[in-house]
Amino acid sequence: MVYRQPLNRLKKFFQKLGFWRSIGFFTALFLSIILITKIAIAQQPVTLNLLMTAPDADPWRQGMIADFERKNPRIRINIIEGPNATNLIEDLYTSAFILGDSPYDLVNMDVIWTSKFAAAGWLLDLSDRITPQELAVFSPKDVEGGSYQGKLYRIPLRSDAGMLYYRKDLLDQAKLKPPETFEQLMNISKYLQRNDKAKWGYIWQGRQYEGLVAMFLEVLEGYGGFWVNPETLEVGLDRPETLKAIAFLKDTIKQGISPPGVTTYQEEETRRLFQSGQAVFLRSWPYVWPLANQKTSQINGKIGIKPMVHAPGQSSAACLGGWGLGIAKSTKHPKEAWQAIKYFSSREAQRQFILKAGYVPSRRELFTDPEIVAKYPHFPQLLEVVDRAVLRPPIAQYAQASDILQRYLSGALTGRMSPENAMQSAAEETRRLLKAGQGKKAA
């Protein structure tokens, strides 16, 4: 048959070649195949998996990721779109890490997740990968929010901080200056309400969820109080300053400055009320600014921002939010993951991302960049707010501590419990939680 001819020729070739020479030939051929395969594999791009909320995915793909992949053809970033709620994203990360077969290489973290993820051993320590000089370009509180027990686990990409929005037009018409203290905020609200300038004076987030904690932390710090000292683990929830903070919030409802339903509001309910022109003051996050200044907005061009008010002799506080990137300890590509983080946190990448997507930068110099300020004229004022940032306590048991505060604070604000009893119980539960955590650490 025809196919036997090549086989016979190959057989005669090896007979002439001899046994040992044949072995040598096959060995060289085998090694060549291995080498070629390795080269081919090495030329294949490395893919880094990154989980984030669905609304953030497209801005990332069309912005920083497209630019990064163009400049780094051997690395691909695969965004895995998760649910919109950030707490569900945290749950997905947690489940994957606990199961021990996490598909994620880069870890996109809310600032309050850092301590939990680091304490659990899920993140690589990045301390030796970046110099103090390189870290100095970021907001100090953003850097602190990426650290746990003296080590760095998260590089900040987007900052965020709570602030006070106010109706600049109404205050200007009444020849009033923006308030600096809680009492001034109350008095201005009452004055403008009496003169039918607005239905409500002050809107805040009072529902039992993480936003309640963020809002309350600003008021608490503004009265000189504290929640948990992360260094000593001292709990300050049953101190007089905490009761003053709760009394202020309850008084806004009692005196008709805030609506009775404010204890059921989250960010969007408060934004809609403010944006429809029904309120003088709003406590919220930077995302409100572009929405409130849309052409269709009733308050377009009529608002100002400033740091949160405070008690006399105390300082303003802005609860720090924001996102940053860490590297999963389980990744097989730590070198490439760090290369991606270096690019995403670079001045060039952040600057373009801000101009395209409008996010708040983590690099301080970008708040006053002329091109950015031309597009977002409120950024210099926003920097003043970010400079007043305070961290929610970076403790390993943060989620449980937050749940305790949410439950008892909601009970105090809605009248289900007296503020004294609520905060006493919250303080005791928090102390037990932290003590149990210390016991586990010692064991």
From TrEMBL:
GO terms for molecular function: maltose binding. This is ABC transporter substrate-binding protein. One of its GO terms (cellular component) is ATP-binding cassette (ABC) transporter complex, substrate-binding subunit-containing. The keyword Magnesium does not apply. GO terms for biological process: maltodextrin transmembrane transport; maltose transport. The chain crosses the membrane at residues 20-41. Belongs to the bacterial solute-binding protein 1 family. The lineage of its organism: Bacteria, Bacillati, Cyanobacteriota, Cyanophyceae, Oscillatoriophycideae. It comes from [Phormidium ambiguum] IAM M-71.
